[in-house]
Write a structure and sequence with these properties.
By secondary structure, this protein is of the alpha+beta class. About 40% of the residues lie in helices and about 20% in strands. The protein has helices at about 10-15, 15-40, 125-155, and strands spanning about 45, 55-65, 70-75, 85-95, 100-105, 115-120.
Length: about 160
Amino acid sequence: MTPHLKETGPQMAGIFNGFDIIGGGLRAEMQRAEVIAVNLSHLQDVGNKNDEPYRRRAVVFEEVLQKTRSETLMNGVRGADGLMNGVRVGEVVVDRSPLQPRHDPSHPKADANGFVLMTNVDMFREMVDLRAVQRSFQANLAALRTYRGMIQSAVQNIGR
């Protein structure tokens, strides 16, 4: 719930829950973009059997669900009133897909056979993911503008 609205009571604060939901989506996408940036920064990492290179990370989102008494559930079950309250980053997981060997006998990390292990970060996959973040961010901002307009309209129409 928006901190400055706590004293207004549940009915009034409920009007503004949309801002919290949209803000949660924006924060989650920001974290996703940060993970993608870190992945891209490790694109050229190499290693070997004893010193693995960086492994790609991925963000896993969780639904945030709200019960009638503002108890937040995170177990994947809707609250008693069925209200959703947005998303958040549940965890950042390490991609365990195989590391690709590359023959480079002159590399300092090459093994006895002249192979190094390349990171499992794929630039094209990361760029596609980054584009998805951008579109999600744009959709959240459009929802924010629409919601703000609805609130403004409701405030203007009170008392008419």
